[in-house]
Amino acid sequence: TGLTIGTDTRFEFARRFGDADGDGAVTARELLELVRSLGSRRGQPRYHWYFDRDADGDVDLLGDVLGLRRR
Q: Residue 40: CA atoms inside 13 Å, Cβ hemisphere, count?
């Protein structure tokens, strides 16, 4: 009973920012959900982790939508 090693496997993962369901497209419904979550913070009902691109606990225009960092 040994360990069998198979062939190499390649896995690619890509997700567009704003693509809430991971289907590769950002729909009008998902954009609306993103807009509604702007200004929300972790723990609030409007907060969605998948819109918190910089993972700082909030969904904000500069950090998450425009990709800019505060200094």
A: 17
Structural contact between residues 65 and 31, judged by C-beta atoms closer than 8 angstroms: no
Tokens encoding 58: 């909030």
27: tokens are 């729909």
What is the mean predicted confidence (pLDDT) over 35-42? 93
Q: Is the pTM of this model over 0.90?
A: no
Residues 26, 47 contacting (CB under 8 angstroms):
no
Calculate mean pLDDT across residues 15-25.
80
The DSSP 8-state label assigned to residue 16 in this structure reads -
Between CA 64 and CA 71 the distance in angstroms is 15
> Contact at 8 Å (CB) between 62 and 70?
yes
